[in-house]
Amino acid sequence: MKKLAAPLLILFFIVLNLLSCDGLDENYSNNPNHRLSFSVDTLSFDTVFTTIGSATKEFMIYNRNDQPLLISEIMLASGEETGFRINVDGRKGDHFQDVRIQADDSLYVFVEVTVNPNASNQPLLVDDSIIFTTNGVKQSVRLEAYGQNVNLYKNGLILTQDTHFTAERPYLIYDSLVISPNITLNIDPGATFYMHDTAKVITYGTLLAKGTRENPIVFRGDRLDFILNDILPYDRTPSQWGGIFFRPESYHNIMDNVIVRNGKTGLTFEKSSPDESKLKLSNSQITNMGEHLFSARNCKIEVTNTELTNAGGGVVVLIGGNYCFVHCTLANFMTLEKRTTPCLTMANNANEEAYPLKATFDNCIIDGSFDAGKEAYKGELNLSVDGAASFEYLFNHCVIKTNGSNNDHFKEVLFTNTSPSYRLKGGEKNKYRFDFRPDSLTTLGVGKADIFVTQQYPVDRYGINRLTNDGPDIGAYEFVPKEDETK
């Protein structure tokens, strides 16, 4: 009997505990004034590509009352017809019954959406609601998303004939977009390319991307949501896709009014002939790359009125070749990747192979978060000279964050250890946004550009006239008082 007593006693307490729990169930409030609270009134999704599922979003259900509540019904108003899907506290479905929520407790609701395609080229609103019924009282949370039809290439795209891309719908590229040898791709102003994960643009032929100031051509990652809620979107995070690569046989490329952002690399130019034009890049922004942003070996490239900013590696890396930069802003204040390289590197050698180098920089800013240092021509500038090949370079009317003095290679250069003052320099306070326009008339480089050079480029990247004030400004942007700005 003594051996049976202990198990019977344990069984007694288990039954008593279960009865006590059942007793709690009987204490659910039936007061219609005891209502649920929600962390949002409307759960909104950013643009969602048709046929491609969204990222998962969530909101909270709260019971702020002093008694448990029994939610008799939770349901999607459309029953999944709109493409929304929900998960309530770990259970998937579109209709749930008798969901318990204790006093001063909460539940998670997770939501996803897939939007069906239609014939429209414009974003289309898709909305629905989740209805909660408690003690006969109905409450709801609205769901909304904007679906965007896209030209989808899930297995990549290899162009084998001359091709013209319009701006009617965005392009969503998985894998890579390849321009075959002797093939030309023309892109209309306003076209947007959403590049998935490691997708690349690989050019063996010729890329002609001619946007306008009002309708630039954009290459970016395909994530439209936030990595940190309402602070850091994926669209301001580097290494979201592969980058744009120009193979050795690719020549006569043109990129005007183009924005390339948030890749692993930016523009990469493989070894070519320095006597034939590789690229003319103008009025553009290349920004926020995980590794090198603009790297070229033995190429002929002209860059004007362009912003090249923020990279985990170098902003501009030139090894041999023939280069001309005019009215450009080169700056590196990357914080989301660890910086490894000065803003500008120029060399006439690589892997024990010599490459003659010729480079000119007129009215350019070379700046970044590195200290200028005590040694001459270091800081944000790295010159690697090999006596086996020529090394010709000239900086004319530039701002450079380095120690140095004017000589045959540096004419009217402003050497500094203090960066010019810009509109926005990233960080959580600015939601990781950058704006490299001069912040004031006293900003270093304002009014200090070579006017004879500027006369060939009389407007800045935003179309602001450089010749209407006391002197043109160094860099890609002319100073404009904030109250007068047109951009």
What would you note in describing this structure?
The chain has 487 residues and is mostly beta strands. The protein has 2 domains: 36-147, Immunoglobulins (Immunoglobulin-like), CATH 2.60.40; 150-430, no CATH class. Helices cover 6% and strands 44% of the residues. The chain contains 2 helices and 44 strands. The strands form 7 sheets. It has a 17-stranded parallel β-sheet that branches. An 11-stranded parallel β-sheet has the order 11-14-17-20-25-28-30-32-37-40-42, with no helix packed on it. A hairpin with a 2-residue loop joins β5 (84-88) and β6. It is elongated and about 90 Å long. It comes from Parabacteroides merdae. This is Right-handed parallel beta-helix repeat-containing protein. InterPro entries: Pectin_lyas_fold (IPR012334), Pectin_lyase_fold/virulence (IPR011050).
Distance between the termini: 91 Å
Q: List unreliable stretches of 5+ residues.
A: 1-5, 12-25
- So how many helices? 2
Mean pLDDT: 93
Largest sheet: 17 strands, parallel
Overall form: elongated
Q: Estimate nothing, just give the exact number of structural domains.
A: 2
Bin the strand percentage.
35-45%
How many β-strand runs?
Answer: 44
Could you estimate the helical fraction of the residues in percent? Answer: under 10%
Q: Please give the radius of gyration in angstroms.
A: 30 Å
- Structural class assignment: mainly beta
